[in-house]
Design brief:
heterodimer, A: 352 residues, mainly alpha, 15 helices, B: 313 residues, alpha+beta, 9-stranded antiparallel beta sheet, 7-stranded mixed beta sheet, 4 helices, 16 strands, globular
């Protein structure tokens, strides 16, 4: 029987958040948000993550502030940033799916389809590189690329800036946030600021790491132990805490002639079929899985790893076949479900 | 030491810190349920022939107190070699048997650097420094073959004539005992050097992919040794197991100047140590039950006798 993942109401979680109980501290001025609601910005950090809050992780030239995150949120959900005025960032990064896309491959302007699955962007404040192939070194750099990608939003950044600059309320927002009229740089910075505000740190697993096992029962503990074991070796790429080592590995999904992944970015033969290791918070709701969305369920994911991948010789040497009993598989799945943070999925602060 | 109790205390302290507002470094090493899980087998680890580094500066400080504010800079670009030829990361390297080897991952830590003096005089501890001359975080240099900026080891030392250098290939015990979440780079999970089963960091990590001459899979071999698919060398959090490497060679550091020499990382020797016949069955339980960990333990024990690092010319 599945252990509870949604036993606390989102509203209760948000109340905890507003009280600063989510392992972080909120800036006093920003916590006092409009209409008494919790601020969009809370300096916080999920359990076991690298040192520093989401605010600490922001670059010096784009310090995290409420004005910037609110501006970024408006831009994030604004279809004006697509050539056809009908696709926004939020089209593919949907809150109820932890800001991932339930489609294997996202659909952009004019019904065009991309080449990869849109990953969750939650907790991206702690990321070091971005996109499945790591072609962006910062959230600011990342933010502009889907807007210009012909398969996604297909709008030159200069045109996006012109559109928002024509709106007086946007002009005022940019002035408040960055002290200037809209520009390509400030548009990207604002989007990055909103993404930095998307922190998921109240899953049963987070609370378990903080010493509260009220929602982390025996099955989840057995699953965690298995996850950390040499038998399945998940920990090599998904170390305890952040559950990503920010590296690139060929996990056995690549097959000959497929998406080359990291290789075109690095130029190294050895990077063929390598993709960035994703963090696993909320993995239960971010199906389908892998860079191409080719695995529909977590059960499928475990089956692929248990088989040692799809058999291509470029597969990482640490991906080796293993056998799982049905009980072990159930425990592993239960552990993965413990990474779900229901409050994030319904948090009105992050909604359009 | 009662690690179980320590883990509980750490968890309680971290939980309290979380409630108080700022710190969330609640994770204890060792994975499931706290810090103790990975330690049951660790106490069986032997220092073996590893030549423990035996740090005298025990604290793990992100900003270590510099030993000196001025001196000469010894700059040592690290060059990977195999079979006497450059070993190119991420690209196919020809093997003596006609096959090829593509290295996929190669990382290691260097710390506790000392310059050797002739005539049996005591060696001189030196600071590991950045390009700007300040101490590296935790006094550690992190070599990552994917990152060209990490390819040069720099130390700040008194000018003079030396007979070589020695260093710990890894990190000292006080750092090895810390949780990655409480540390900064290069001692974080993104180093890809964390190893929950021992409750410590890897000291050296290697993975590669070999192909035979006909393009099929192959274990691969240099002209003298087999090549393991992976080598994970580490220690544990209860003992100082980091191996010490001695690299002989004349080094004349000019007054107020800098000396640049290169240091080869001889992959043949790394593979030789990792595939040696040393019996590691005394630690072959739990955490060391995998081929890559056993290879690492063989390397750790053999390292002081190998010529894995060579000053050039």
């Amino acid at each position: 029987m599945a252990e509870p993942t949604r036993s606390l109401a989102a509203g209760v979680r948000i109340s905890l958040l507003s009280l600063g109980l989510l392992a972080g501290c909120s800036d006093g001025a920003e916590k006092a948000a409009q209409d008494g609601a919790p601020s969009l910005i809370v300096s916080t950090s999920p359990a076991g993550f690298p040192k520093g809050t989401n605010r600490d992780r922001a670059p010096a030239d784009n310090a995290l502030s409420l004005e910037r995150a609110l501006l970024g949120k408006r831009l994030f959900y604004d279809p004006q940033l697509s050539r056809t005025n009908d696709v926004s960032c939020g089209t593919c990064h949907q809150q109820q799916y932890a800001f991932a896309d339930p489609s294997a491959i996202s659909t952009g302007v004019d019904g065009r389809t991309g080449t990869r699955n849109a990953p969750s962007i939650v907790n991206a404040a702690w990321g070091k590189t971005f996109f499945w192939d790591g072609r962006a070194d910062s959230l600011e750099e990342q933010a502009g690329k889907p807007i210009e990608n012909p398969l996604e939003m297909d709008l030159p950044l200069a045109d996006a800036v012109a559109r928002v600059a024509a709106d007086p309320s946007y002009a005022e927002g940019f002035q408040k946030a960055y002290g200037e009229a809209p520009s390509e740089s400030s548009l990207q910075k604002a989007l990055a600021s909103f993404v930095r505000s998307l922190v998921s740190g109240m899953s049963p697993y987070d609370r378990h790491l903080r010493g509260d096992d009220s929602e982390f029962g025996p099955a989840r503990k057995r699953g965690e132990a298995l996850f950390q074991s040499e038998k399945v070796e998940c920990f090599h790429c998904h170390p305890s805490g952040e559950l990503t080592n920010e590296g690139y590995f060929n996990n056995g999904t690549y097959t000959a002639g497929g998406d080359a992944g990291r290789q075109p970015v690095s130029g190294r033969v050895g990077d063929l079929g390598k993709f960035k290791v994703p963090g696993l918070r909320n993995i239960e709701v971010t199906a389908p899985y892998m860079h191409d969305g080719s695995l529909a369920t977590l059960d499928d994911v475990l089956e692929q790893y248990a088989a040692g991948g799809r058999g291509d010789p470029t597969t990482d040497p640490l991906i080796e076949p293993f056998a799982l009993s049905s009980d072990e598989k159930a425990d592993l799945l239960e552990f993965l479900r413990s990474l779900t943070d229901p409050a994030l999925l319904a948090d009105p602060r992050f909604a359009p | 030491m009662k690690w179980q109790s320590l883990a509980v205390l750490l968890a309680q302290a971290a939980a309290l810190a979380g409630v108080l507002g700022c710190s969330s470094d609640a994770r204890s090493r060792g994975g499931p349920g706290g810090g103790a899980a990975g330690l049951s087998g660790a106490s069986n680890l032997s220092s073996g022939g590893g030549g423990s580094a035996g740090s005298t500066d025990s604290a793990c400080l992100e900003n270590p107190t510099p030993r000196r504010s001025q001196g000469s800079v010894l700059s040592l670009p690290l060059q990977l070699v195999m079979d006497g030829k450059p070993f190119v990361f991420g690209q196919p390297n020809a093997l003596a048997d006609g096959g090829s080897l593509v290295p996929l991952n190669l990382r290691f830590y260097i710390s506790e650097v000392e310059l050797l003096r002739a005539g049996g005089q005591a060696s001189i501890p030196v600071d590991v420094v950045t390009t700007s001359g300040v101490s590296e975080p935790y006094g550690v240099h992190f070599f990552n073959a994917e990152d060209g900026d990490s390819s040069t080891l720099r130390v700040l030392a008194p000018p003079g004539d030396y007979a070589g250098l020695s260093f710990a290939l890894g990190i000292k015990l006080s750092c090895n005992q810390q949780t990655p979440a409480s540390l900064t780079d290069p001692l974080t999970d993104s180093s890809q050097m964390t190893w929950p089963h021992t409750g410590g960091f890897l000291f050296l990590r290697y993975e590669g992919r070999s192909a035979s001459a006909d393009g099929g899979g192959s274990a691969g071999a240099t002209s003298a040794h087999e090549i393991p698919a992976a080598v994970h060398m580490g220690g544990n959090i209860t003992q100082e197991l980091v191996p010490r490497v001695t690299v002989p060679g004349a080094l004349s550091l000019p007054m107020g100047g800098r000396l640049e020499k290169s240091m080869s990382v001889v992959m043949d020797e790394i593979f030789k140590g990792a595939t040696s016949n040393i019996d590691v069955s005394d630690v072959a339980i739990g955490l060391l039950s995998t081929p890559e960990a056993e290879a690492g333990e063989r390397l750790r024990r053999e390292l002081p006798a190998l010529h894995a690092f060579v000053l050039e010319p």
